[in-house]
Amino acid sequence: MTHQLLFIVFGLICVAGAINLLVQRHPISSALSLVVVMASLALIYLLLGAEFVAAIQVIVYAGAIMVLFVFVIMLLNAGAEERTRGSRIALFIGVPGVIVLAGTVGWLLMAGGSHMGSVSLNSSSGSSSFGDTHAIANLLFRNFLLPFEITSVLILIAIMGAVVLGKKEG
Amino acid sequence: MDTTTFIIIAAIKIALVVFVMLTGVAYTTWLERKLIGRIQNRWGPTRVGPFGLLQPLADGIKFILKEDMIPDNVHKGLFILAPMLALAMSLISIAVIPFGNTITVGGHTTALQISGVTHSGNAISDINIGLLIILGVTSIGVYGVALAGWSSNSKYSLLGSLRASAQMISYELALGLSLVGILLLSGTLSLRGIVESQSGTWFWHVPKWYIFPQFIGFFIYLLAAFAETNRIPFDLPEAETELVAGYHTEYSSMKFAMFFMAEYVNMFTVACLASLLFFGGWHGPTLAFLPPILQSLLPVLWFALKVFFFIFLYIWIRGTLPRFRYDQLMAFGWKFLLPLAIANIIVTSFIVAWRG
Amino acid sequence: MVPLSWYLILSAILFCLGVFGFLLKRNIITIFMSIELMLNAVNLSFVAFANYWNTHAPAGGKIIPLSGHAFVFFVMVVAAAEAAVGLAIIISVFRTRETLNVDRVNLLKL
After folding, report:
1. Whole-complex ipTM
2. What's the number of domains chain A is made of?
3. pLDDT in tens, B103-136
């Protein structure tokens, strides 16, 4: 009961933040709504027992990536969005396509949802160290060592790319 | 214990901690003005009350009674939100800081920590990721500074706030990495667990505090924390208010007071973390002849003494050192502190792996 | 108990809102933020399934329940790298074209 209530509250905050991101004209309001979405997603991760992932979501996503977005919006001093004619293909094929996709997925999940069972607030079944930092670290540094090292090289490439792209000419 | 008792005890703890924290902040301003005055060979505040002790009260009344102006073309929502965000994030970090073990009042046992829960037999369970929560809340605190400058609709405020937030996110890296050495030694992210792993002594009664193996980590942590809280020698974003403008230039009375309080509460958080992680938290000599309730409050006294030492260090350094230029500041953070922190992690992990 | 399908429906809704933002908005930074919203929706699916496999794991040890969390870690790393490079590109485009509206940068000629 408490679990359902908390999920519904934070889920509604997520969806409201996402709709606000679409509706707002000024990019800074969209950026701050996205921060609200990420923070409420972090709380939903806590409901799912993923404590390390929730902390990383706040530190990395809401606290670093979105700060970068807010910086760029402030530096470029982007004003409110102007209305221009968008792409027709996107409007007439994309939007109905997404609605069809969302409707199909939603109907499938609602119809067959009872077969899938439910998630638990991590009290009794399953190991009590689920989502623990030790367990994730073991997984990252043993089973997933190669992807881990490759992502560190990826970040290095991104840093170099950003530095080169950001340099002024001459 | 049942739910209502739990909620009542938690509410009492929160009210007490916030009250003590805000009073501490007010009297830290008094202490700072007195100490800086003495360092600069003058009296500090002496007029209001004996030794100027009622000066924070006078300042508080001044802040409340001053006219609260909102300039015309500001983005009103963000203008009002930014100082509240800064103060709220500072106060949230206090929720995970443990002050001691348990205390038993009137038959109810509770942990001396807002987010600590006691079980039977005086076992306390803490938040598993307490240290990450403090780092996360510090990251969100950058928004308070960035939005304050942008919403003020003034070029100089914007540039000042961009500088300040760039400084804060650069030093967050060195801050986080300096704490990894402690995590390698203690094996847990929970603050209570880190303090518990510092109990005991080595030879000659030297306590097993992490300042001894991790002195480089302590040095990096202190410098990064000084930069995070925008204090001298890293307070160019604030000193700009003396020169041209800074991010809180357009703010008056209560909102400015909120920024001011947020800075001092951040100082307190840094001091509490430094004493928890490097100086053994509430461990100190226990005096067995005291009654039980005073015995459970004695660790709080040791903790408070260590925190006071760090606040004194903050004020002492403010009175002594000049401030960095902005390019020197950023070069120091990226080119010196970050490689040093990584080297600290490498050396610590080698030693931990070698000792099996 | 919250059924797993509720988490997946929330993830689908967030993803679709991200796609709408990508298709309908004209400011390039907002389009980029819609991409981040899509990545977050996918992260939610990963974490929900990680919890689900923890309690309903099939026998045989073929599914590691915590691999969902490890994948979220990788998605966040890739999102950070992409945000850094993407914003650098946006700044370069802004320096030459003086506009952030995608409809005005649709020709190679300045």
Report:
1. 0.92
2. 2
3. 877 777 888 888 888 877 677 888 889 999 999 9
Residue matched to tokens 């909620």: B7
Task: Give the nearest chain A residue to B139 (CA atoms).
Answer: A63
Residues of A in contact with C70 (CB under 8 A): 136, 139-140, 143-144
Phi, psi of A74 (to 5 degrees): -70, -40
Boundaries of domain holding A137: 129-170
Query: Within an 8 Å CB–CB cutoff, is residue B125 touching chain A?
Result: no
Chains C and B touch (3+ CB pairs under 8 A): no
| Record: contact C80-A76, CB cut-off 8 A | no
Q: Do C5 and A78 touch (CB under 8 A)?
A: no
If you measure CA to CA, which chain A residue comes closest to C4?
A: A118
Contact C21 A22 (CB under 8 A): yes
Model confidence at B245, pLDDT cuts 50, 70, 90, reads low
Quick check: B223 pLDDT over 50?
yes
pTM: predicted TM-score of the whole model, two decimal places: 0.91
Query: What's the CA dihedral at A30, A102, A3, B12 to 10 degrees?
Result: 10
What is the reported pLDDT for B352? 93
C24 near A CB under 8 A: yes
Nearest CB among A4, A22, A110 relative to C5 is that of A110
Residue spans per domain, chain B: 3-354
Quick one: average pLDDT of A124-149?
82
Q: CA B43, CA C107: separation in Å to the nearest integer?
A: 69
Contact A62 B139 (CB under 8 A): yes
Q: Which residues of A touch C38 (CB under 8 A)?
A: none
Residues A1 and A77 grouped into a single domain = yes
Distance CA A119, CA A117 (A): 7
- Phi-psi sector, C97: left (phi>0), alpha (psi -120 to 50), beta: alpha
d(CA A77, nearest CA chain B) in Å: 10
| Maximum Cα–Cα distance across chain A | 64
Residue C65, preceding peptide bond in cis (omega within 30° of 0): no
The total of structural domains in chain C comes to 1
Comparing CA positions, the residue from B84, B25, B27 lying closest to residue B272 is B25
> What are the tens digits of pLDDT across the range B49-62?
888 888 888 888 88
Q: Which residues contact B294 (CB under 8 A, 6 or more apart)?
A: none
Using the predicted structure, report yes or no on whether residue B244 has a pLDDT greater than 50.
yes
Q: Looking at A23, A49, A81, which one is the last position of a domain?
A: A81
- Residue B115: how many CB atoms within 10 A of its CB? 19
Query: Would you state the pLDDT for residue A128?
Result: 63
